[in-house]
Amino acid sequence: MLLPVTAVLLASLSASPAARARPAPVKTSGFDAIAIPLVSFSSDQGMGYGAVGGMYLYGAGKEPYAHALSAQVFFSNRGVQSHSLRYDGPRLLGPLRVEGRLDYRRELRSPFFGAGNQSAPEFRGDVNNELYNFDKGTPGFWLRLRGHPFGEEHPLQSYVGYGWRHMRVAAYEKSLLSREKPLGMDGGNMGQLLAGMLWDTRDNESDPREGGVEELSLRISGNATGNRYHYVGLTLSERRYFALTSRLTLAHRMTLDLLFGDVPFYEWSNTGGVNVSEGIGGMNSVRGIERNRFAGNIKAFMNTELRYQAAQFRVFGQPLKLGAVAFMDLGRVWHPGVADGKWWHWHPGVGGGVRFSRRAAVIRMDYAVSTGSGRQRCYVTFGQMF
Q: What are the residue boundaries of the Bacterial surface antigen (D15) domain, all occurrences included (predicted)?
């Protein structure tokens, strides 16, 4: 969602070594620090602005750094707030990587269209209509331990973690949420036990051209984890990259997310994994469709991109790359007790965009159309979609 305006010029301070073709010499003492403005835009959440800062502390035998701290403050003109403090210790506990984040997110108009693949058939595209919105606030944190069981060069990674947040739900009097009253209307604590495995053979972590990454992740919620609701989530994800020519890359992602048990409505649109997504609909799942337009206990989506590196040039002495992308996204959901339509009833979005990149920093600008409704959406954000 966020776009550091100057990050393309300063990415060398924050790029992970796995994302660099030729890493810089490892520093053994001292620190680096940086602060940059944030600007973003999406048709779903409007114009956003804020700032982010980071600090990297180095130590002997600690690669790529001993500790990293980052902080973010972010607001949008549609009532979104997203503030966070994050820690990363690549070798804090021997070979184990310790990652953690403390955050607060508030949305004055968070979308709710009901459950299922054919929800809210009367919706005509007005995302500001109170009928399809509610307010929420979610302070929380997560902590994760990640490692390579068979050595740093082996593609297998595994992780365990814990996440907690408090969900505050405020439904509008005449909204669809007030009318349907699904499980979770009262909000409450959400504690989850997290675990997963990745098989990562990508040649470049931030902008891959070959290889892929497969992930299996699990999240468990119940009284023992500090959650008032009992449910289990399972996420399977596959990402593949093919270098067709020296400039052309075919990228493909498939994600399947399944929820079982007493699932609160605000979990219907979430997926698990190291990099979580929302959907179906929005800049992280199916572009061109309104954010979280379709939600349910089972979600599946696919993204195919043809990425073309058009040119390289220098700005203020820094090397930049210009790229273009054509894409097609597909997604659908299944939910118990509602009509989801035929098995082939998927929701597609098509479009194109441009990319500006330097090392790990990628600026993404996309234009997309929902071929089902004909509605159009624009996104400006930071990082490849997958």
A: 81-385
Cβ 58 vs Cβ 91: under 8 Å: no
pLDDT tier at 27 (50, 70, 90 boundaries)? low
Tokens of 100: 């953690």
Q: In 12-61, at which residue ranges do the beta strands (DSSP E only) sit?
A: 31-42, 46-57
Both tokens assigned to 257 = 């997310």
CA distance 158 to 150: 10
**Rounded to an integer, what distance in angstroms lies between the CA atom of residue 12 and that of residue 3?**
16
pLDDT > 70 fraction of the chain, expressed in percent and rounded: 92
141, 165 Cβ separation under 8 angstroms: yes
The closest alpha carbon to 89, from 45, 145, 132, belongs to 145
Q: How many residues belong to the chain?
A: 386
Q: What angle do CA 242, 244, 250 make, to 5 degrees?
A: 45
pLDDT at 257 over 70: yes
Distance CA 177, CA 339 (A): 18
Q: What is the pLDDT of residues 154-195, one digit of tens each?
A: 999 999 999 999 999 999 999 999 999 999 999 999 999 999
Instruction: Using alpha carbons, select from 275, 360, 385 the residue that is nearest to residue 18.
Output: 360
Structure tokens at 58: 């180095």
pTM of the model: 0.87
Domain 7-382, what fold? Porin (2.40.160)
What distance in Å separates the CA atoms of residue 11 and residue 24, rounded to the nearest whole number?
13
Q: Closest Cα to residue 63, out of 18, 117, 122?
A: 18
Question: What are the residues whose beta carbons fall under 8 Å from the beta carbon of 80, sequence distance 6 or more?
Answer: 45, 46, 48, 74, 105, 106, 107, 108
Model confidence pLDDT, tens digit, residues 47-71: 999 998 889 898 887 777 899 999 9
Burial label for 45, CB within 10 Å (0-12, 13-18, 19+), is buried
Q: How do the domains of the chain map onto residue ranges?
A: 7-382
Q: Which residue has the tokens 């600090």?
A: 55
- Tokens for 46? 């409007």
Contact 4, 357 (CB under 8 A): no
Tell which residue, 10, 68, 69, 67, has the closest CA to residue 37.
Answer: 10
Q: Which two tokens stand for residue 106?
A: 């508030």
